[in-house]
């Protein structure tokens, strides 16, 4: 027991020293990088039992205003932490918030069920309490396993120490930011290299040349990332833990940069496309998936030197982005409206080209169509088919034999790549294609739209009006 106390005391002394030395740095950097209303520190105690995790979570440096407490969906037995010296006087009776108060530290406890126990290669996510509109500046994480299952834990934070004692296995992690995920596996992989930016777990020694190259990377975020090399493919999405098979510089660089970009720009980890494109601009070279590389090359080929520089500056200044925000940034630089990022995210594997849009709202029979898009492509004006024809009362069926469009009185069939169309069982020649599929969306050329569906188009300075000109 004396050894246990001595070991833990030693680790806590080191932890407190690191906290004191980094306090100012953490807060100043976090305020620049995030858009949270306030920042707090947290100390987390996880005690793993056979069928549950007992969690004690201590919050420090809390603001005095009321704060909503967001519990994990799976959590049970939620309560104040009644441990010695714990404080939860601000926790409301219904456990949904910390009420206004001067106490800057609060502690809570809860349990997370382990229905099947602790499984091999298990990753936990969304298992900790979050404070609404708050950002985590620093985390201290204690993990105790009372069943002494051994193995290794990876949290994304730096490992301060791990040991197997007579009664427990114990690990301590510290670092800037939050714990987004927690991973466990039975096989212990040693850390071959670690610095303030990342830890490399590998059975093989990391070549000196590779370390030198990694040290030259200018990572866009200060939060630590753990990289676990494995000879088996681990299909897991995590923001601060990277699982990769290859130990070459390109693979490591891609994983580290993309993970950091996801963190600093607030991009959901399952969707790496946007993070890969942004990473490509930060590195000045295409990385990631084939589609991400194509999007990077498309923009680099189109943007002028000045526009490209302004785009990179916009990426540095704007954090917490999504596809729509990136489109707004690109539109402001080009002075032309585009939905390049939004359409490519929606299109899945399809490539949606860099096209520009008419920024004026479209009205059909005096009703504004919020989902209506008007694109310019190769001298043509294209209108999105589904919102247009749905508003006009048509149904649309896309089949392997062609496009079928009909309402109560008119029925069209447009064969695939055939120079004709059929209206009410009568065939008409077509010198050009009325419809064009871009990504996963059908568009119709303006002249064909007017002719086929008997419409009038009037373009005013601030709006486009579409009206029916004939009886159906």
Structure commentary:
With about 475 residues, this protein is an alpha+beta fold. The chain folds into 3 domains: about 1-190, Immunoglobulin-like; about 270-350, no CATH class; about 355-470, Copper amine oxidase-like, N-terminal domain (Copper Amine Oxidase, Chain A, domain 1), CATH 3.30.457. Helix content is about 25%, strand content about 35%. The strands form 7 sheets. The protein has a 7-stranded mixed β-sheet with strand order 4-6-2-1-9-12-11. The protein has a 5-stranded antiparallel β-sheet with strand order 18-21-22-29-28. Strands 23-24-25-26-27 form a 5-stranded antiparallel β-sheet, with helices on one face. Strand 28 (about 435-440) and strand 29 (about 440-445) form a beta hairpin. Helix 4 packs across helix 5 (about 290-300) and helix 6 (about 305-315) packs antiparallel against helix 7 (about 325-335). The radius of gyration is 28 Å and the shape is elongated. Residues about 1-35 have low confidence and may be disordered.
């Amino acid at each position: 027991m004396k050894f246990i106390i001595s070991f833990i005391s030693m680790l806590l002394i080191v932890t407190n020293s690191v906290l004191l030395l980094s306090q100012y740095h953490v807060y100043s950097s976090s305020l620049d990088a995030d858009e949270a209303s306030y920042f707090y520190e947290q100390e987390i105690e996880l005690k793993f039992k056979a069928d549950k995790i007992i969690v004690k979570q201590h919050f420090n440096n809390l603001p005095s205003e009321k704060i909503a407490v967001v519990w994990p969906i799976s959590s049970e037995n939620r309560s104040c932490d009644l441990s010695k010296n714990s404080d939860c006087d601000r926790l409301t009776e219904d456990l949904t918030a910390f009420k206004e108060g001067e106490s800057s530290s609060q502690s809570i406890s809860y349990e997370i069920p382990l229905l099947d126990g602790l499984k091999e290669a298990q990753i936990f996510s969304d298992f900790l309490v979050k404070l609404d509109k708050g950002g985590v500046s620093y985390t201290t994480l204690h993990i105790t396993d009372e069943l002494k299952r051994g193995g290794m834990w990876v949290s994304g934070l730096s490992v301060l120490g791990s040991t197997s004692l007579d009664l427990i296995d114990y690990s301590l992690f510290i670092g800037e930011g939050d714990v987004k995920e927690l991973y466990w596996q039975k096989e212990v992989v040693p850390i071959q290299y670690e610095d303030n930016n990342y830890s490399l777990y590998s059975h093989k020694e990391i070549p000196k040349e590779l370390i030198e190259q990694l040290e030259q990377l200018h990572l866009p975020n200060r939060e630590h990332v753990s990289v676990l090399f494995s000879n088996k493919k681990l299909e897991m999405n995590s923001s601060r833990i990277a699982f990769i098979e290859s130990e070459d510089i390109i693979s490591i660089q891609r994983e580290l940069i993309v993970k950091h970009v996801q963190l600093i720009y607030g991009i959901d980890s399952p969707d790496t496309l946007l993070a890969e494109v942004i990473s490509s601009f930060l590195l000045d070279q295409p990385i990631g998936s084939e589609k991400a590389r194509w999007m990077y090359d498309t923009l680099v080929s189109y943007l002028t030197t000045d526009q490209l520089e302004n785009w990179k500056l916009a990426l540095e200044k704007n954090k917490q982005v999504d596809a729509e925000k990136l489109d707004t940034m690109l539109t402001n630089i080009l002075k032309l409206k585009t939905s390049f990022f939004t359409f490519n995210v929606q299109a899945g594997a399809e490539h949606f080209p860099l096209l520009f849009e008419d920024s004026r709202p479209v009205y059909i029979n005096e009703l504004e169509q919020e989902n209506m898009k008007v694109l310019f492509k190769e001298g043509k004006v294209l209108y999105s088919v589904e919102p247009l024809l749905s508003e006009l009362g048509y149904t649309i069926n896309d089949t392997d034999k062609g496009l079928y469009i009909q309402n109560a009185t008119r029925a069209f069939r447009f064969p695939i790549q055939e120079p004709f169309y059929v209206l009410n069982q009568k065939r008409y020649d077509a010198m050009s294609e009325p419809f064009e599929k871009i990504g996963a969306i059908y568009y119709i050329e303006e002249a064909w739209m007017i002719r086929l569906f008997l419409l009038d188009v009037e373009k005013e300075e601030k709006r486009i009006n579409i009206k029916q000109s004939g009886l159906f």
